[in-house]
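[audit] Reproducing an earlier prediction to check determinism. Same input, same settings, fresh worker. If the tokens differ from the archived copy the diff job will pick it up downstream; this log only records the rerun itself.
[audit] input (435 residues):
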Amino acid sequence: MDSQQAPPLRSRSLVVRTLHNAIHRKTRSSTFCFFPIHHENEIKEKRNRAAMEAFVSQLFAAVSSLKSSYAQLQIETQFPFHDKKAFESADERVVDEFQVLSELKRRFVKGEMEINSTPPYMTVMLSEVEEQQSLINIHVVMLRKLQMEMQEKEAKIVYLKRKLCKLSQSNGAMEKKVLNSSVLEGVRFSDLNLNHFEVVLDYGLKSIRSFVKLLMLKMESSNWDSDEVVKAILVTEDFTLYRKDREFKAFELQSFICREMFAGFSDRSFGAQKEENFPGESLHRRRFFFQQFQQTRSVHQNPNSSFGKFLKSKYLRVIHPKMESSFFGNLNQRTTVESGRFPATEFFEMFAEMGWRIWLLHRFGFSIADKVGIFEPKRGSRFSPVFMESVTGDVISCDGKVDFTVALTVVPGFKLRRTVVQSQVYLHSPETPAC
């Protein structure tokens, strides 16, 4: 009986082991299949995200490169006078950048985010470098544009200055023509009066103011200290009272020029022709000066003439050697004047024009009166509307009383016969009532 029951036990044991192995294998198989599928999805998602980031970086870099190339093309378009090859090269770069953008569009549409074996993070870094380089190029292009615009504006400034100079010369010629027609040619000796003298005086003062402006520009360009200049030529004692007044500085310089140019005005020779014999009779002398007034029609005179000698003496007196050396770096103009010749420079031309107009005023003054006096109100003198005229305008206080005093005589006054031409003064009032 025992021998008959043994096989079933072995058979049962074999079945149990078979079932156990089958269950265990299934369990292991289930564990093996579930986790790898989930992991592959994460890797694929990260890869797609990295590829998209790299693609976007390439897109931004391409757009920046296009902006840089287009900016360069604009420069070459706005300034076509430059190299033609540079314009064609800039145009080709713009076309190339559009082709890059077109390729990126095609890749995006077809989903081809990765076209090479370069890791996405490397693509991002390279794209960022390219984008920054494009931004730098844009700034370089803009800097070049600004430099070219500055050069263009500087050239325009030079052109406008030349045009202004021509217009000024034209206006000066027209002004001379007006003066000639109204005084030099239009007036007769028997019709001379004080109004004509005032016209010629205004004509001369315009030239003085123009020369003063030129001097101030020369001083600024030569880095002169305007306070020290005013202090050197100031005749008043209260320098500290006016040194910060820019208007006063201009008037003081004009006052200095007037003092020097009008020095000797009361003398018939005007300090230039003492060897000349004037007619003895008063009427003949007046006619003699009127003829000289009419004959001196141009500033371009013989240096050995009466006017030439006058101009030489005034130039050497007004223009200090240190001033000329500072303005021009040499004393060539002074040397030329001392040798009896007139230098052909803009600076001397303006000085000669000023001297010529004052010379005309002197000749015209002695054509009206046999004696011409000149007066300069002293500093501190009370303002008198009969003998003075304010260069700044207001001279009356609120209560109607004149309480201004003379701080500076800018233009001297003149006495012809019994008539007075007012001096022009810069006034000062320490305590002016509020209006």
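[audit] rerun output stored. Observation attached for the diff report: Residues 1-6, 26-35 have pLDDT under 50 and may be disordered.
[audit] end
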